[in-house]
Predict the structure.
Amino acid sequence: MMHQPPGSATMVATATSLAPVLRIGAVSKRFGATTVLEDCSLDVAEGEIVTLLGPSGCGKTTLLRCVAGFLDADGGDVRIDGQDMRPVAVNRRPVGVVFQSYALFPHLTVAKNVGYAMRMQGIARAEADRRIAAALSTVSLSEFGDRYPAQLSGGQQQRVAIARVLVMEPRVLLLDEPFNALDAKLRGTMQVELRQLIKRLGLTAIFVTHDQEEALTMSDRIAVMRAGRIEQAAPPGEIFDYPSTAYVADFVGSSNFWTSTAEDGAIALPDGQTRATELSGAVEVMARPHNLKLAPHGDTPWAGRVSFSRMVGPLIEYHVETPNGSVLQVAAMRQDHARPIDDGAPVSIAVVDPAFCAVYPAR
Amino acid sequence: MSDAALPQPIAPRGIGERMVDALLSGRGIWPAVPAIVVLTLVAVIPFVILLSLGFADIVVSRGEIVSQTLSFQHLTNALTDPLYWSTFQRSLNLALTTTIVCLIFGYPVAYLFLVSGKWTKRLILVLTIAPLLTSGIVRTYAWLVILGGRGVVNSTLMSLGMIDQPLRIMNTHWAVLIGMVQIHLPVMILPLIAVMSRHDKSLVEASENLGASRLGTLRTVILPLSVPGIGTGAALVFALSYTTFVVPQLLGGGNYLNAATMIYEQVVFSLEWSKGSVSALILMVTCLIVLVGIALVTNHFTRWTRGHGA
């Protein structure tokens, strides 16, 4: 699908590896008095899958629609391969959109849906048929060309929607919550399949979701959005292990927060250990459930009582109520044959690795 | 959006099937009983009486019916009378023209409704529905004022110097057509709007994203998907304008003979009830034939709703 233009191979390679395919520069958007997007900047490199992750109403879909051209940004610009997209009409932009509802044309067969873009471009029938067949085979739907969308399952409809934009050979693929309409089990399978397909074709993609697991599965990089701003954009591991703000830590993965005070470049952790920090004054400390462990009662000064426990695959998740009333989540590997700690049992809590606790200024 | 308030178009299939299902299974028939009783009293029984008048040779002597025999004489007379043929042809022409003109004027309004914002949508709905709130007779009389010799149209044209003498619009075929289109336009627009708003809005965006121009999207997505609305609107406008009485009678100045005005004259002035009965039957049968034709054409263009191959 991607092909190098003829000419100086090294020059081209250098250029493509350095310049982002898509550059979103300080995009702002207001609807009346409401600011929906504020100063959003994001570069997407060739072949990269970037997820816009955030709760509903954070502006992620609005940003996607600005890139697609369905909306005009009030400020900032969108560039694809360096070209300013502002003067480019929606039907001339080199982007392919997979809609949340798939938006398949119900009156056209699968093959005609897939061939729609070529029909609009006036591409010859024989060439179009060849490319339709290739696209349907890419998404393993070769047998379904004559069916109507209503005769397909949700997963198959999604694959048609993907094939329909693939034949356009778009520079950027935009996916707006494409798994929402699928049931939970199929969703997991389709996520893996879709990521592998996009990677195999070397496509550059932006993917919008409110589901953090989906984001962790699909993305090379996640941009966490909050109230119209991009809070942090980083690879999934970095987002998970080193969330740059308390909001990101709270939104991605489970987390335990408590307040503390930083003095002389260090914070005293409740279990007696210390954590170095550059902050001073009131701070918020965050530990992931797997960075906490339970110890026999009295081992550390951080005491609590197990209020609930459940098995989550190979882990046991404990909820521990501390004397001040807050509830901490602690994840422990399930030991063979060992009985989980009973509800109500007094325990002590310890931090596994203080360096993996995140520290933020108090909110 | 206030789409929920719109009347949903009558599905050509579905309702019939469901009624048959309900009748066969015995479930769900009881809620329909009051309607069936009313329809029997006000539609079926009068219809049977009407038919019996048309197909009976009634001999009356001194105000009493002497004999009643089955006869096809009135029907044969009607079918061989050139006046009937020309009258029904005029009715058919008028109704088909009205339907097509309503579609030509109504479709852009429905398209505008689809692509415009919340307030424009409301305005279009109000402007479409408002005429339905006044009686057809009142609206027809309004056209007398507008189209008359000293009416708004003529006085404007004359004051602009475009004409010297008033145009004769009233009591012509044109006056009837103008009145018919104005009266029946909402009946075309409402089903179009209902069908168009039913589809996923992102279909239009998808079409544009795939490289279609506005016109391309209209031609390849919006138009094919609005065929059921076109069918419903066309059927309603045709049925209403084919059988209409008030507009031709008032704007045609009493000398515009269409099927309904002919039946009126036969029944009210000539007191030839048998002739009127046969005319009404012909009117109903020909109307049904055209409606079936519209349904067949609509079905042909909506094969996808039944999931057959293209």
